[in-house]
Design brief:
Elements: E1 2-9, H1 11-16, H2 19-38, E2 42-47, E3 55-60, E4 63-68, E5 77-85, H3 89-96, E6 105-111
Antiparallel strand pairs: 1-5, 1-6, 2-5, 3-4
């Protein structure tokens, strides 16, 4: 079964981190990625651009309204994702708990609707 692991963190906190700390998290990500790719558990993973680069589409009176920026102001922002293949939720949670970006915020694990 496929699960989407959504990585949330405070963008300002990450932007304020020393470059060495950010680089360390990225190295830790690489260490987790290789075995997941090797055993076929990782389908895709990527960081997102900051929320300031987002564009949101809402419908008003049946017509799309496009605005710059994220959908909502929140304490933590969606910063990336990992799409994994796991036998069940327990395995998905085990994998998600090892994702280095989780140390900077939280990971929401959601099954993909087949």
């Amino acid at each position: 079964m496929k699960y989407l692991c959504l990585i949330y963190s405070d963008e300002r906190r990450i932007e304020a981190m020393p470059r060495e700390e950010v680089d360390a998290v990225m190295r830790d990500c690489e260490a987790v990625v290789l075995p997941l790719r090797t055993n076929g558990k990782l389908i895709a993973a990527n960081r997102l651009q900051p929320t300031a680069s987002a564009t949101t589409i809402r419908f008003e009176n049946g017509k799309p309204s496009i605005t710059d920026g994220p959908f909502a102001e929140t304490k933590e922002q969606l910063g990336g994702f990992w799409l994994i293949d796991a036998k069940d939720l327990d395995e998905a949670l085990s994998i998600a708990s090892r994702l280095p970006p989780a140390r900077l915020g939280c990971v929401e694990v959601r099954p993909i609707r087949e």
